[in-house]
Amino acid sequence: MLESKIGKYISKTPAKVTEEQGYIVVYFDAQYEREDVVTVKVVFEKGDETYKVQGLWFDSPKLRE
Predict the structure, then answer these.
(1) How far apart are CA 63 and CA 65, in angstroms?
(2) Is residue 20 part of a domain?
(3) Nearest to 17 by CA among 40, 37, 34
(4) Domain coverage including residue 17
(5) 36 contacts 30 by C-beta, under 8 angstroms
(6) What pLDDT does 14 receive?
(7) pLDDT tens, position by position, 16-50
(8) Number of domains in the chain
(9) Separation of CA 39 from chain center
(10) Is residue 65 in some structural domain?
(11) Which candidate, 42, 46, 51, 44, places its Cα nearest to that of 59?
(12) pTM of the model
């Protein structure tokens, strides 16, 4: 679905890291072929040393269409 709407992945830049309701949330600004800024949100449970991803979201204007 991502590739059909915004093209292939090009690069990412870390944007910020926050702590929200017992989770560590990492935001990235990613660039794709047809979308310059895609916000990627990756969520980890605080204190979980296995660093398993608890949530993963992609957001951009084209993805919301």
Answers:
(1) 6
(2) yes
(3) 40
(4) 2-59
(5) no
(6) 94
(7) 999 999 999 999 999 999 999 999 999 999 998 89
(8) 1
(9) 5
(10) no
(11) 42
(12) 0.88
Does residue 64 fall inside a structural domain? no
The token pair at 61 is 């204007």
- 55-60: Cβ within 8 A, 24+ apart: 55/23, 58/2, 58/30, 60/6, 60/32, 60/35
Check residue 55 and give its pLDDT: 97
What is the Cβ-side half-sphere exposure of residue 8, based on CA atoms within 13 angstroms?
1
- Averaged pLDDT score across all residues of the chain: 95
CA separation for the pair 40, 2 (Å, rounded) = 12
CB 40 within 8 A of CB 55: no
Q: Write out the H or E segment, with its range, that includes residue 3.
A: helix 2-6
